[in-house]
Amino acid sequence: MNQKVLLTGGAGYIGSHVGLYLAEAGYDVIVFDNCSTGTPESVFFGELVVGDLSDVELLLHTLINHQISKVMHFAASISVPESVLRPLDYYDNNTRNTLNLLQCCNKVGVKEFVFSSTAAVYGQAEENPLKESSITVPINPYGRSKLMSEWMIQDAGQASNLNYVILRYFNVSGADSKGRIGSYSRNANHLIDNACNVVLHHQSHLKVFGIDFPTVDGTGVRDYIHVQDLALAHIAALNYLENGGSSQILNCGYGVGYSVLEVVERVKVISGIDIPLVIESRRPGDPACVIAHAEKIRHILDWHPHHDNLDDIISTALEWKRKNVSIK
Ligand code: UD1
């Protein structure tokens, strides 16, 4: 019998890639998703349970019904600016719902838990690249909601048989290299999405949020990771736990930073289309520079990325959007 894995948020951008690759690796996938931002179209394999993590009864029933002992927890709200405007929604959907999930996992004796965390837990880095041991002082509610979730997972792990891998994502973009899946979100507003939207004439210009950061050209610097490499890191994390690995916190990035203007330049070159820029002030809650120290994950999980170049990230994202023109 195939091994079952429950994916909360498995109809979303990253969860759906992981679901596809898990199924290809021979797992049975059960997706638990409220489909608020994710879509059933992106669940290729396994069963979709449409539900919210606040519905503890349904969640518990799903875990028991499918005899789940492995969970990957993606479901979350993920926009930094939105979290600044609606902080309590973030503590509700990210922190409280993670507590619900952990309580249910505890009841049914889940053993392996992989959690989608974020580089936003580090806040404004004093040192770059950021190590997993670097100080965590998040500067927005999104980062705080995720850091609190990390603490709960660590405490639950201490007090029970739950073993976990917390993956701290840096800036995720791109799409499946075979073009089967990508971002379905109609309101994705991250940099590469927005730049692709200009190329495809869904928007007239790209706003640059801040040109006065203490960085190479004054714009924000980020470590962009291809979604396919990130997804495969989840499967490596699960295999590691299945083989008796101890709980870990691991950065998911490549250890290379690009500024907003550098990203825009690559999008222009790859697409051959000009991208008009409008300079805006900084977004609240945006750090200047966020780059991963990316060695620990390679060492612990024996994870080797295959798409660690910015052009690959941009071209797969652009190709996906071009083919799925209804997604803006
Ligand atoms: C992203 C993720 C967040 C994740 C974090 C990890 C999104 C929406 N957010 O945040 O979930 O936890 O990485 O570090 O994917 N920018 C512009 N113009 C735009 C959009 C962005 O100038 O139209 C700039 C931003 O100010 C920033 C950089 O581009 O300097 C990257 O921004 P964005 O793609 O939104 O990602 P983060 O906010 O870094």
Low-confidence runs of at least 5 consecutive residues? none
Structural class: alpha/beta
Hetero groups in this structure are: uridine-diphosphate-N-acetylglucosamine
* CATH architecture assignment of the largest domain: 3-Layer(aba) Sandwich
**Distance between the terminal alpha carbons, to the nearest Å?**
40 Å
Number of helices: 10
- CATH class identity of the largest domain: Alpha Beta
Strand content: 15-25%
Number of strands: 14
Question: What proportion of the residues is helical, as a percent range?
Answer: 25-40%
SSE series: EHEEHEHHEHEEHEEEHEEHEEHH
CATH superfamily of the largest domain: NAD(P)-binding Rossmann-like Domain
Query: What's the number of domains?
Result: 2
What gross morphology would you assign? Answer: globular
Main sheet attributes: strand count, strand direction, barrel closure: 7 strands, parallel
Spatial extent as radius of gyration: 19 Å
The mean pLDDT is 95
- Please give the order of strands in the largest beta sheet: 3-2-1-4-5-6-11
Task: Pick out its properties.
328 residues, alpha/beta, UDP-galactose 4-epimerase, domain 1, 2 domains, binds uridine-diphosphate-N-acetylglucosamine
How is this structure best described in words?
- Helix 2 runs parallel beside helix 4 (87-108) and helix 4 runs parallel beside helix 5 (141-159).
- The longest helix is centred in the N-terminal third of the chain and has 22 residues, at 87-108.
- The protein folds into 2 domains: 4-173 and 224-252, 3-Layer(aba) Sandwich (Rossmann fold); 191-222 and 255-323, UDP-galactose 4-epimerase, domain 1, CATH 3.90.25.
- The protein is of the alpha/beta class and 328 residues long.
- It has helices at 13-24, 56-65, 80-85, 87-108, 141-159, 191-199, 227-242, 260-271, 295-301, 310-323, and strands at residues 4-8, 28-33, 47-50, 70-73, 112-118, 163-169, 171-173, 206-209, 221-222, 224-226, 248-252, 258-259, 277-280, 289-290.
- 48% of the residues are buried.
- The structure holds uridine-diphosphate-N-acetylglucosamine (UD1).
- Uridine-diphosphate-N-acetylglucosamine (UD1) binds next to helix 6 and strand 8.
- The site of uridine-diphosphate-N-acetylglucosamine has 23 residues, from helix 6 and strand 8.
